[in-house]
Design a protein that fits this description.
492 residues, alpha/beta, TIM Barrel, 12% strand, binds zinc ion
């Protein structure tokens, strides 16, 4: 007697297919490239375009190449070792190629030479393209959106500071600075805030308009990047003098209050730098102080991007915990040193209970910190029920993409299709994009009553008023289409 069995759903067949290919990096890449991945919540604007793009922009602007420094510099090109960037690819392809190496971690990861550590190579590259990236915020944003669309990423939370903030803060001299009187420092800054924020807001909007122009978003055949939603996180540079960092952060917070597209604040630059370590507590107090002034701002701090050896052991004890307990960080960037921290089990419980997501950057951690495979705490976070998202960090400098993060999560950490789908859903749930979720309170993957049918009037109404729900609903529709398609893939 035959027993009738219900046909497997496309999702179940997709899970089974994934299981069959889960040890094969090439098949995984085919599968995961097509998989919708939701958001990239940890993405630095200046680290995302590729070196080749920076060299192209430098050529367009007649910027120069300093051969000795292997860096892009401003015109005129009259220094001893300087040549024009214009036409360089043809006139001196060897130099062009050396520059791509210098502006990224290319030769390091391709194993051509490794006299430089990944950490040093990574961080040294930024100064070498900064002169051009500073001039090209719209091309940078267009590049971010193009890369995201190409990788099936629908939302990017981009670390980006408008020019008026960054050109102001580093020129500040505040002779009365007293780190124990942040209120007085804030009051001295107060008269400057409004005009700088208005200029910053205007620039942020102009950059978006220009980027959309570059992508042809109003044309008949717009670039796929036009469909990518971008919100912004402002940031403070943690190696700058404290009074300057304070002003940069204060302006970032003020911009978030004024600009609906700027949502969160971060701290960037190497956490292992002696200045970052020395001032870490003060930096947490600054964030806490400014969060009281500007309560709408969300906070996501790079914390625990450290290894023993890179930083002294004392620095590995409290950074993640302090980011949460003192600065009120609602997500954690990297979180690599969690196993070295005091009270790490309590911190993990707290992150699980309070839904403080960890932004995991697998390629970045491998290249910059040398942390990979079983040394990486990804599975500790997962098994502690901490919400996990995967992100790119600096995909151009690191010569990586979002798909590679997913491939590595599967290959090196054993995540199955259901786990990766959860990661993609998390990346919108824990995004700072405003609005209510399509999921039940605290349960990503359990649909709310309103969206029990994704095309119900109630779900339409939610998506119309909530940018988050709109993105989430589209992701679910994209999953349905993807699973129906990939489940038919006749391989293995
Ligand atoms: Zn980062």
């Amino acid at each position: 007697m035959k027993v009738a069995t219900a046909p497997l759903s496309a999702e179940a067949r997709t899970e089974a297919l994934f299981e069959r290919i889960s040890d094969d990096p090439v098949l995984l890449r085919v599968f995961l490239r097509d998989m919708p991945k939701g958001g990239d919540l940890h993405n630095h604007a200046s680290g995302t375009p590729y070196a080749e793009e920076y060299l192209d922009w430098a050529a367009r602007r007649d910027f120069c190449i300093d051969e000795a420094e292997e860096a892009i510099v401003e015109p005129p090109c009259d220094g001893a070792d300087q040549v024009s960037a214009n036409g360089l690819m043809r006139s001196d392809p060897d130099l062009y190629s050396e520059l791509v190496d210098a502006l990224s971690v290319r030769d390091l990861i391709s194993g051509v030479q490794s006299e430089q550590s990944g950490h040093k190579q990574f961080f040294s590259s930024f100064g070498k393209f900064f002169p051009i990236v500073r001039e090209e915020p719209a091309r940078t944003l267009a590049s971010v959106k193009r890369l995201a669309a190409d990788d099936r990423v629908s939302y990017v939370e981009l670390m980006f500071n408008p020019g008026p903030i960054d050109s102001y803060f580093s020129q500040v001299v505040d002779p009365e600075w007293d780190e124990n009187d942040l209120e007085a420092a804030f009051q001295r800054l107060a008269p400057e805030i409004e005009p700088l924020i208005q200029q910053s807001l205007a620039e942020r909007r102009a950059v978006e308009d220009d980027a959309n122009g570059l992508l042809g978003c109003e044309d008949d055949q717009p670039d796929a990047g036009c469909d990518v939603t971008v919100y912004y996180n402002t940031y403070g540079l943690r190696r700058f003098p404290n009074e300057q960092l304070f002003r940069q952060l204060a302006l970032g917070f003020a911009l978030i209050e004024a600009d609906p597209k700027s949502v969160g604040i971060s701290l960037v630059e190497p956490e292992d730098d002696p200045r970052s370590i020395e001032n870490y507590d003060l930096h947490m107090r600054m964030i806490a102080f400014l969060s009281e002034k500007y309560p709408t701002a969300k906070v996501t701090l790079h914390a625990g991007e450290l290894t023993l050896g890179l930083a002294p052991s004392s620095a590995l004890r409290t950074h993640i915990r302090d980011a949460i307990m003192i600065a009120g960080s609602q997500r954690i960037g990297h979180g690599i040193d969690i196993a070295w921290e005091h009270q790490s089990r309590d911190t993990l419980d707290r992150m699980a209970n309070e839904k403080i997501a960890v932004e995991i950057n697998l390629v970045s951690n491998d290249v910059i910190l040398g942390v990979r495979g079983a040394q990486h705490p990804l599975n500790l976070y997962l098994s502690s029920d901490v919400p996990v998202v995967l992100s790119t960090d600096d995909q151009g400098v690191l010569r990586t993409d979002m798909t590679e993060q997913y491939v590595r999560a599967a290959l090196e950490h054993g995540l199955d299709y259901a786990a990766l789908k959860q990661v993609a859903r998390n990346s919108l749930e824990y995004a700072f994009v405003p609005g209510d979720s399509i999921w039940s309170e605290g349960e990503v993957g359990v649909i709310s009553d309103a969206c029990n049918s994704l095309s119900s009037a109630a779900c339409d109404a939610l998506a119309a008023e909530s940018p988050k729900a709109d993105l989430q609903r589209q992701l679910e529709r994209d999953f349905t289409a993807f699973e129906n398609d990939i489940a038919e893939w006749d391989i293995r």
